[in-house]
Fold each of these.
Amino acid sequence: MAQTKFVLDEKDLPSRWYNIQADLPAPLPPVIHPGTLQPIGPQDLAPLFPMEIIKQEVSQERWIDIPEPVRDVYRLWRPTPLYRAHRLEQALGTPARIYYKWEGVSPAGSHKPNTAVAQAYYNHQEGVRRITTETGAGQWGSALSFACQLFGIECKVYMVRVSYDQKPYRRIMMEAWGGKVVASPSKETAAGRAILAKDPSSPGSLGIAISEAVEEAAQREDTKYSLGSVLNHVLTHQTVIGLEAQRQLEMAGDRPDILVGCIGGGSNFGGFTFPFLHDKLAGKRKDLRVIAVEPHAAPSLTKGEYVYDFGDTGQMTPLVKMYTLGHSFIPAPIHAGGLRYHGMAPLVCALYDHKVIEAVAVHQNPTFEAALTFARAEGFLPAPEAAHAIRVVIDEALRCKASGDRKGIAFNFCGHGHFDLSAYERYMTGKLEDFEYPAEKVKAALTGLPKVQV
Ligand SMILES: Cc1ncc(COP(=O)(O)O)c(C=O)c1O
C-alpha cells in the first residue's frame, strides 16, 4: 500500500503566518463603533487587546513572522501529520484520493492552541496578567487555559451552559491547566443576568458568553479579552495548518481538487484553506473548490444575511459586516458546540460574497453517521465539529464513486472527540435530534439590526 502519513521535521515548522488580507479581491468593509456608527481606530480596541494583536488585525502585510517563543511552544506538537485516508477510501469504494490534516494531536486536542499560544504570548509581552474568554465546546477554553499557563497568565472562561452540562471533562481539563470556568449565562455580569432574567434555563450561546467575557475585560484594568475565532488575526495564526499541509501534499506528489473545513467562526476553515486560496486568488488554481460546512442549526453562510451586526448577544462588541443570523438568535443545542455561533469571520464572509468559496449545511445525525464511518476505517474519533467536514468529504467521495472521477479531496481534521462520547452514545442509541432551520426565529433576530451607512 502507498504511503499513509506525511510528516515534516521540526525544522520545517513555518516561520511566518499568511495574511490573506493582502490578497482579497477588495478590502474588508470597516469595523464600526456601535455608538458613533463610524469606523473604529486602534485606540477603541486597546482596552480589550494588546497592541500587537490590534496591528495584526488590520495588517495588509502578506506575511507575518511567527515569534520564536511561539514556534518553540508549537514544537510540542507541530508540525502535525497529514494522512492519506486509504482505509476510508477503501471502505467507501471511491476512486477519490482523500487526505486529512490531523490537528487533534495538540495538547488541547484541536487546532485552537495555534492561536491561543500566539495570543497568550503577545499579552504576556505587553504585561497582561489576566485574560477572559468564552468557550462553546470547551476546545477553545482548554487551548487558552493551556497557553495562559505557559505564559503565567490567569485565564477566566465563560463556558456556554449547554456544553458545561454536556462536557464536564472539558471543564476539568481547563481547571487542570489553571483556568477558572463559569457556566454562561452567569450571574457574574450584567449581560448574563439580563439573559437569566428573561430565561432562567437558557442553554446559553457563544454570543452570550462573548458578551460576558468582553464585559468583564472592559471593566477591569488588569484584564484583557481573547477570542478563539472570527477575527482576522485568529485566522491568520491558524494558517500554520495550511502552510504545512501544502508542503505535505507536495511530499505526497498530489494536488487537491477540493478542500473542506467545518465552520463555526471560521478559524480552522480559514487556517487550512487560506494558503491554498493564495494561489486561487492569484488566478493559478481557478479550478480549486473550497467548501465550508456548517450545521443546519446555525447556518450563517447558507441562510444568513450579509449585513453589519454585533459579534455578541449583549451588543458590546463593535459592528462587523458578516453573514449573520442576528445577534439575538440562540442556535439549538446541537453537540457541535463550537459551531453554535450566529455570525462568521469577516474574511470568510468576504470570500463567500465574492464566490471564491462555497458553503453547505448538514444535520447532526448524518454528521455522526459520517464520524462513525471515518472512525471505523481510520481509527480516530472525530469531534462533532470536525465530523461536519467529514460528512461532506464522504458525500464528495461518493459522488466520485458514481461518476468515476479520481478527485483529490483534503480536509482539516480539526479535533478529536474524546470528550464527546455522550453525544456518540446518544447517536448510537437513536436519541440524537435533527433541528430544522428555524426560519421564523432567524427572521425575528434579523429585524432591528443597526443600519450602518459606509
Ligand atoms: C474542534 C473544533 N472545530 C471547529 C470549531 C469551530 O470553530 P472555528 O470555525 O473557529 O474553527 C471548534 C470550536 O470550538 C472546535 O472546537
Amino acid sequence: MSETQVFKMPKIWYPEAKTHYCPGCTHGVIHRLICESLEELDIQDRVIGISPVGCAVVMHEYMDLDFIEAPHGRAPALATGMKAVRPDKIIFTYQGDGDLASIGISEIIHSMNRTLPFTTIFVNNAVYGMTGGQMAPTTLLGQKTTTTPAGRAPEVSGYPMRMSEMLATLEGPAYIERVGVTNPKDIMNAKKAIFKAFKNQVEGKGGMSFVEVLSTCPTNWGMRPADACRWLEENMVPYYPFGVFKDFK
Ligand code: SF4
C-alpha cells in the first residue's frame, strides 16, 4: 500500500469537515473506520445512521450519509422501527456508554432480543463525556470522575457493567465483539469488526451486530492523549477484554 493510499480519506467523509472532538479523542478514529467500511461495501446510498445524545451528537456533519437524531438512549428503538418498515436500508446506531448502558439500557436489550439485523457501534470510554465527566455504568472501580471524586466504590455505586458479555446471553443478536483503537494493531482489528458488523446486515443475517469499541476521553480523564491510550490499555482492557462474544457466522 502506498503512502498516498494510507492517508487517503474515505469519500464519505466531508473533505471540508473540521472535527469538534477534543485533541486525542478516539471518536474520530472510529468514525473513519465506519466510513471506510461503508465505502468498501459500496452501500453509502442505502445507509441511515442514528446519531446519539453525547459527544457524537453532530457526527452527521462529518459524513455524506442520511442521518436521524434519537433522544437520549432511544436509538435502538428507532432503529428497530426503521428496519422493520425499510428492511432494504442499512441502519446503524452510534452510542456512548451513558446513552446505551444507562438511560438506554432497556432499549438495547429489547432491540437485541429481536432478530432485526441492524448494526450498533457502542463507544465505551468509561465516563459521561459531553456533560463533563460524570460516572457512567462502565466507570471502573476506583476511577475518579466528577461524581465519584474519591473513586468509584462498589458499596456506593455498584460494579462496572460489561455490556458485551451481558448482551451475549441473549438469543437474538448475530454478532458481538469488543475491540480497541489506541494502537495500529487494535485499529486494524477494530476495522475488521466494524466491517463485519455492516456486512452481516448487508447479507441479511438475522439478528443485530454489535461492536463495542474501547475509546479514550483525555479531557475528562485529565490526561494527555498518549497517556490516555496507555491508561486505557493498562486499566480498561483487563476489565473489558477484547474478543468475540457471539458470532452466528
Ligand atoms: S469530552 Fe471526551 S469523549 Fe467527548 S470529545 Fe472530548 S475527549 Fe472525546
